DNA sequence: TCGAATGAGTTGTACTATACAACCAATACC
DNA sequence: GGTATTGGTTGTATAGTACAACTCATTCGA
């Protein structure tokens, strides 16, 4: 298989697809190990809400390609746990702006700590350049289309 | 943030974690769009079985960090669909060796075609070198520990 | 300016994915 | 030969998800 051979691309493409999928399949187990107290999806949405200070349910659904009903229930669960609060949007009464509560921010900080430690561990022997490039590739891949 | 600053590493690590998670959250929706006839996990396991010609349920559980009961049910579903068959292992009567049936191989080929096309599309403007490196990074990340 | 179309969110319902525990059967190891 | 281990199934419970039908608020067009 020489350089420029279309099969070389296909091999890489297949590997990328396979490895991304394997990662996705394992994500739940990893999350359960790292923060058994906070379900995986709840954690993800809470992190996004915190990151985007003041996002809407629809934004979450769009970002993660989830149905709005799914997000609605997830938010309800997070609210019940006291981790997220809804604020009415004065400009558009259909909208609820989501914010982490103090408890939410704390919980997130704690679990984010252990998550980051785990990922950092796993990436401990990577050069800074490789980390950077890997991060860029993922961003580029995810932002396509 | 200068080079060598530990925070530079953390930024990359956070991005990697965030983007991998985002990908994982979207995987189901993507799969549903690409092959509505074959549920995501079924597809993944079938692909692995095909790849590893003759693997055991336990191997699947190990590879994807799933409980053996989960795998057992998934295999049962694939068998019911006529996509996988179990062959007894003559050396160890506890073991069932899993193989794709002809129908399984066909189904896989069809869906794999559309999947690969989608990924290839999304990676169309990547240089071969970038593809290669991205694939390597993913392999390296997934094989850690 | 009113009625239709659109958009945000909720709720009913159903199904997939998953884990844990208890179990059975075959094998391996003293 | 008895005990521990391993591969797999089944019962049960829960998370995660989609789709459809709904409500309420907003916008837009005639």
TrEMBL record, chains A, B:
Output the Gene Ontology terms for molecular function.
Answer: DNA-binding transcription factor activity
Gene3D superfamilies (alphabetical)? Winged helix-like DNA-binding domain superfamily/Winged helix DNA-binding domain
Q: SUPFAM superfamilies, alphabetically?
A: Winged helix' DNA-binding domain (SSF46785)
Which superkingdom heads the taxonomic lineage of this protein's source?
Bacteria
Biological process terms from the Gene Ontology for this record are:
response to stress
Residues in HTH marR-type domain copies: 13-143
From which residue to which does the signal peptide run?
none
Question: What PANTHER family does the record tag this protein with?
Answer: MARR-FAMILY TRANSCRIPTIONAL REGULATOR, TRANSCRIPTIONAL REGULATOR, MARR FAMILY
**Protein name according to UniProt:** Winged helix-turn-helix transcriptional regulator
Organism of derivation: Streptomyces beijiangensis
